[in-house]
Amino acid sequence: MLFNTLRTSFHCFLPLHHSFSFTRPSYSNIFSRSLSVATASANMESQRPVVLVLSGKSESEKEFARSLKENSTLKIIDDVKLQTYLHSEMETQSEKDEFNIDTYMNSLETKCFGRFILWSPRLPSTQDIVSLNFFQLPIGSVCIADLQFKGRGRSQNTWESPKGSLLLSFTMQMENGQLVPLVQYVVCLAMTEAIKNLSIRNGIPPLDVRIKWPNDLYLNGLKVGGILCGSTYQSKIFNISVGVGLNVDNDKPTTSLNSELQKLNSDYKLQREDITSTFFDKFEHFFHILIHQGFQPLEELYYKTWLHSGQRVIVQEKNQEQDLPTENVVTVQGLTSSGYLLAITDNGERCELHPDGNSFDFFKGLVRSKLA
């Protein structure tokens, strides 16, 4: 069976806690009020049952969906009730802005990733679904929600993610720990290439979506999406849940892909289904390269897409004799073999830069580690 074969040949990831959010206010006084409203809203949402629709691309994957539903073994966070259906049991899309499974499946060309789908019009978090049910799902399974009311953010923050955003999480595994930190870069690269590919395919100028290290996506200087990854390590295998968030139609609080297309006087609108299928096509190809050849064949394309080559940044250093850290300016050169930033000081010393928790904003909060 395809699932079992891929479990032994495709494996992935480390706990990487940088993430995306879609409704975080810009000012502290607004933040306090909005957080209270969001918490109350999430509590009300959690009292409503959650509908989860299962489907697969092949007949064997559809049969697996039937078995999963009949066994009623899928888990969700404790305070939420779950109702599970097969896609074949559902009537036609009740709302035009719902994710269309048929449209997505018809354009998907992968052999592993994205072929088994769990879709919901509203979920606490796609990341929770794949994490809680990781070992019950085929590797490469994807969970997609039209709306999240307990989405995960940095430092255990929770966020409401409204309609108009592409919200998905998928499962993967990896054995080679040296490649693990690089997978988040492959995810970012696959998404930027997917958006570019769709633009070219439809005869419009490619949107200049860029990567802000380590896992944010920017468009015209504004954040438009990002990545969240979590993992467990068991029996010499990393079990990874990868979350992706992308503002497709929702402009708040920054911008969206389609609003930028509108500024270009384009009548074409990017659809979540097309972005998702093209993303998985790209990701599967890039991931195969990473597994068999390492990251080097992808470096040139990655550096063309990220924001940082030659960027001057401030790093903080502190020793036991200092009360306050000293700050020094270095120049970014690329990535080290371990996946951190390679930089050079003004006196020619090579160093590796590590993000320093929540203080990291790419201008301060970086920690330097000297390289030989």
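the 2nd protein, sequnce then structure:
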Amino acid sequence: MVTSVNPNTELSRCFASSLRPSYSKPNSSQTRLCRFSSGSLSNTFSGLSMAPSTEFSRSRRIFSQSKNESGESASGNGGLTYKDAGVDIDAGSELVRRIAKMAPGIGGFGGLYPLGDSYLVAGTDGVGTKLKLAFDTGIHETIGIDLVAMSVNDIVTSGAKPLFFLDYFATSRLDVDLAEKVVKGIVDGCQQSDCTLLGGETAEMPDFYADGEYDLSGFAVGIVKKDSVIDGKNIVAGDVLIGLPSSGVHSNGFSLVRRVLAHSGLSLKDQLPGEAITLGEALMAPTVIYVKQVLDIISKGGVKGVAHITGGGFTDNIPRVFPKGLGAVIYNGSWEILPVFKWIQEAGRIEEAEMMRTFNMGIGMVLVVSKEASHRILEGGNGAYKAYRIGEVVRGEGVSYS
């Protein structure tokens, strides 16, 4: 039996205040105030076994950051690359390959754990260096939506309905008003994904972060029946790729975005060329939460695989849902490229292949569906959502563009 968990905006948080030791006072002290809601958690998950299981799947995605802010493109073409900005996707992929030897089964968007006739599906993430833009723009009300989105969008790719979310907020000195704005965004994200904000932790760590800055991370857990898991095993050549539009850059690629901004000579307060919003507003647009839309489409049948387009763009994320021996052809011009991506590419003189491997380019989620289902999905939205036929599955490996 699957227990239904309704959205809950009541916050139950664990607050930790850690005082760093000083030379004049060598004994450190730590206070921890933990509060959890008095809901029937034991009843909700009474069947959960914590015993080791050989039947599990672990998700692993690498997000690499670097403080290195110097240098031009290593390719010598003068254009900027993600690697120049300090993020090496190839190194991340190599680490995943090595970890897979130690923990077989990783590589999906969410980790699966058996629970009776269902799987618990879990995902964890942060929002990366988009936080830097939040600090610079003063826009803190929506960064929590990004945080929730990065995890729930991952676990819904398995067909799982999110159950609950927990967050971690860390800062050097707690600014209660600012933290309230951030947590309000997390609450909004949970409401959008129809899941409960179950708890979290607020850590105050003096001298660890720059004044006025903070860090965020979180994780979500969902559930799906074993016979309803979307795992890509039935994908065949000829299946259709349907793309769901993004709101913008979402929460990946900001190390490169920040490099482009520095080279452009513009500020976050300047207008996005040709548009009626500022660069800061365009770049801080919150990540779309696709949970309700994707679950609705899945419920109508014909969906064989779902890919969340995050770090690695189309090039690295779409093949993650394919059986061996299959690849994809993406139709150039089959969806609307958002103005913010056009500006990024032009201002940074970024090559097309680099753009497609770094950013979502206006498509935040890709569904792999049968031809029959594609017609229903593309025509059956009744104006409730936009969807584009962006490509097809082919024999071979990798992603090509035509």
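DSSP finds twelve helices and 13 strands in the chain. The longest helix spans residues 176-192.
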